[in-house]
């Protein structure tokens, strides 16, 4: 009885489910993590469906939140939503494409004045007004983005900063069109039924924010998003790979400007008036700082930046009232607090608040269930470990093949081997020992070499035996000739 090792039967890494189709280390991804916390929640693999799940969850959360707070809080939640739209476009421009902009307040002005002029002259409805504000601001982004595509980061920041300084002055130069210093008034949409107008406006702003972030997230996972990241990482390598660098930059600028225009139009609904005072230069700088606080390139982090942007002025007003600060000091307290928060956020979480939360979540999960690679490798080793048989005491991964069958005609034994598959490899215990080697006296002479007809057949695993010619098997003369040939070979061998 000889033990021939075989490969153990494949064990599914997912007990009770289907086997994972991948091989190697990629196959470990299908293993469920082990630990006290149980299995992770599986989200849809398709990006659009996964983002749609977050869209529905976000809509449900904000619906419950807005129906249980006051009207002023609805106003603040609506502002958070519209700033999230602007920060989402800025995060795509800076975090994904690597372009810096200090003039997004100017694109918000374009969107706000577009909505106000349409309400004053066209009356196309709220959907037409918002779409028109978005498209006109995106067109302005294309105009600015074409020359900006040839500029590097500091020069691009300077150009956009100049735009934020110069564009608000147009309303003063053309007062008959834009209303001068007083600006233009807007009418917020009225809520249906018993829903008050502020709560209805907050729902519109939240829906627009969730829809825009859904589209931006899908855009980032598409070939356009990959082109954005390639240009951000290395423009030369992106151009060599076939990406039109200038066109990609202009597209990113247009999308970001369109988001800013939509946010400006929604802000015009909230304030009820559009003038230069609503869009100062500090707003453009605060937008960039809020994007950094939330996390550049993160469409979830824009909500943290929007919260900081909205509530910072409220918190600064409370502090100034508590410490009885003067009017001049209270005016700059918000900017000072915002700067301190920005510095602390960069030092504590260089990737933003969302990046810090993600890092803490990964550390906490690893502390509870171990690293994913460790748990997957443990599961794989347990699945591949051979069990012991209760009958024979040998591992179940080995089988015993009896060597039965009649002996060969020449007195030797012929081995009946298993098929030569990859699973039936011969182990080291079955190798031929040194005592069984063929000695020099047993070598086959030149006359006794196997002819072409006596060679081994096509059956793999069988041992062919060379047999002497039956006519000369007991001939004394031939035996004498063989002895002389052996002596001649021994003398000629050095």
Description of the molecule:
The chain has 494 residues and is mainly alpha-helical. Helix content is 57%, strand content 2%. The chain contains 17 helices and 4 strands. The strands form 2 sheets. It has a two-stranded antiparallel ribbon. It has a two-stranded antiparallel ribbon with strand order 2-3. α2 packs across α12, α2 packs across α13 and α13 runs antiparallel to α14. The longest helix has 27 residues. The protein is globular, with a radius of gyration of 40 Å. About 23% of the residues have low confidence.
**Could you list the spans in which at least 5 consecutive residues all have pLDDT below 50?**
11-38, 387-474
Q: Helical percent range?
A: 55-70%
Number of helices: 17
Say how many strands there are.
Answer: 4
User: Rg, please?
Assistant: 40 Å
* Overall geometric form: globular
Distance between the termini: 43 Å
- The ordered H/E elements are EHHHHHHHEHHHHEHHHHHEH
Q: Tell me, rounded to a whole number, the average pLDDT.
A: 74
Strand content bin = under 5%
Alpha-beta content class? mainly alpha
> Biggest sheet: strands side by side, in what order?
1-4
Biggest sheet layout: 2 strands, antiparallel
- Specify the oligomeric state: single chain
Question: Outline of this structure?
Answer:
This protein is 57% helix and 2% strand. The protein contains 17 helices and four strands.
């Amino acid at each position: 009885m000889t033990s021939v090792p075989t490969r153990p039967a494949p064990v599914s890494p997912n007990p009770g489910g289907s086997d994972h189709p991948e091989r190697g280390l990629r196959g470990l991804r299908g293993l469920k993590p082990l630990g006290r916390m149980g299995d992770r929640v599986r989200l849809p693999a398709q990006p659009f469906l996964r983002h749609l799940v977050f869209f529905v969850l976000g809509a449900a959360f904000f619906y419950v939140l807005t129906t249980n707070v006051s009207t002023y809080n609805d106003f603040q939640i609506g502002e958070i939503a519209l700033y999230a739209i602007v920060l989402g476009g800025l995060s795509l421009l800076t975090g994904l494409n690597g372009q810096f902009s200090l003039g997004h307040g100017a694109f918000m002005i374009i969107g706000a004045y577009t909505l106000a002029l349409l309400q004053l002259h066209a009356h196309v409805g709220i959907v037409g007004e918002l779409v028109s504000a978005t498209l006109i601001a995106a067109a302005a982004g294309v105009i600015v983005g074409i020359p900006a595509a040839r500029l590097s980061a500091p020069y691009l920041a300077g150009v956009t900063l100049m735009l934020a300084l110069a564009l608000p002055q147009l309303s003063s130069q053309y007062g008959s069109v834009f209303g001068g210093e007083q600006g233009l008034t807007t009418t917020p949409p009225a809520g249906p039924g018993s829903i008050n107008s502020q709560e209805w406006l907050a729902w519109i702003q939240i829906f627009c924010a969730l829809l825009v972030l859904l589209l931006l997230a899908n855009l980032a996972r598409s070939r356009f998003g990959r082109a954005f990241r390639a240009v951000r990482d290395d423009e030369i390598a992106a151009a060599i790979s076939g990406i039109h660098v200038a066109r990609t930059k202009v597209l990113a600028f247009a999308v970001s400007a369109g988001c800013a225009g939509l946010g400006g139009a929604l802000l015009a609904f909230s304030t009820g008036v559009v003038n230069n005072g609503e869009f100062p230069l500090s707003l453009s700088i605060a937008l960039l700082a809020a994007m950094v606080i939330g996390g550049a390139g993160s469409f979830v982090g824009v909500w943290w930046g929007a919260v900081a942007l909205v509530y910072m002025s409220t918190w600064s007003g409370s502090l100034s009232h508590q410490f009885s600060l003067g009017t001049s000091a209270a005016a700059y307290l918000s900017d000072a607090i915002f700067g301190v928060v920005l510095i602390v956020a960069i030092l504590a979480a260089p990737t933003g608040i969302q990046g810090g939360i993600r890092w803490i979540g990964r550390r906490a999960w690893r502390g509870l269930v171990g690293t994913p690679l460790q748990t997957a490798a443990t599961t794989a080793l347990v699945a591949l470990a051979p069990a012991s048989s209760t009958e024979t005491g040998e591992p179940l991964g080995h089988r015993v093949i009896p060597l039965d069958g009649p002996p060969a005609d020449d007195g030797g034994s012929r081995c009946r081997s298993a098929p030569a598959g990859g699973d039936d490899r011969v182990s080291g215990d079955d190798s031929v020992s040194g005592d069984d080697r063929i000695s020099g006296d047993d070598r086959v002479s030149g006359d006794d070499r196997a002819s072409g007809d006596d060679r081994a057949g096509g059956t793999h695993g069988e041992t062919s035996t060379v047999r002497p010619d039956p006519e000369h098997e007991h001939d004394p003369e031939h035996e004498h000739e063989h002895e002389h040939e052996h002596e001649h070979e021994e003398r000629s061998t050095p």
